[in-house]
Amino acid sequence: MAKTRRLIKESLPFVDLVTEIVDARIPLSSSNPELAELIGNKPRIVLLNKCDVADEKATSRWVEYYKSNGIYAIPVDCRSGKGLNAYLPLVREVLKDKIRRNTEKGMQGKPLRVMVVGIPNTGKSSFINKMAGRNRAKVADKPGVTRSNSWFAVGNGVELLDTPGVLWPKFEDKEVGDKLAFIGSVKDEILDSEMLALRLINVLKNGYCDRIAERFKISGFEDKEDYEILEMIGRKRGMLISGGEIDYERASVMLLDEYRAGKLGRLTLDLPQ
Q1: pLDDT in tens, 7-29
Q2: How far is the CA of 96 from the CAs of 64, 68, 84, 112, 123, in angstroms?
Q3: How distant, in Å, are the alpha carbons of 19, 75, 128, 133, 232 from that of 51?
Q4: In contact, 122 and 165? CB cutoff 8 Å
Q5: Whole-structure pTM value
């Protein structure tokens, strides 16, 4: 964490703009609270990635929220490229004064340099690959793949600086930690999958009961305890062990995997205040 913060600070004088990638399902929880202080007055663009599995109305609210705070935001899906055609024109619009000054100084065509930041597993490498048009950045569906700073030319006079994804030292709000674990930004190996699945059920039943019912074909669970709902889900999927008991571990992993893959529908767990 300290190394990444140092890399960001050292690189800031050499970039014109910062692009932050957040998960559209949890824009608040997936945004590093230290970032605003780190980047100071540098212009910022926020990419609401994985918008295809987030609630569309909630995403629109987030775009308006960022706009009201002087921050540009675009809903995108970095794997498919949805929404990314608006990115480079927005970069040039945000930096139009910089472009004009460069032209006046005889430096027309000087590359615009953009730092790309984001916590693990929000899609930085997928974004850079899509923009560069080839697999130049290492990509994996797990946190902690990018280890050092790398530059990539993406055309239209723009260069992107990839930085390692990093979480912050302490979660002040336990719910933030839970939501980051739901999307896979915290390594599964250090988590109790059953406990995490129960927390996810608790969140979903308070806002998306219909999605649980539709996906797992269960009903009459609204007043049940979280573990009872997990048991109903596991039984419905036939995840049983000897004696007809539920295999809670398998049921938990399945629930988390299906949530992350968007199979429960378009869900947003953070809403702007």
Answers
A1: 888 889 999 999 999 999 999 99
A2: 22, 21, 19, 10, 27
A3: 16, 6, 17, 21, 30
A4: yes
A5: 0.86
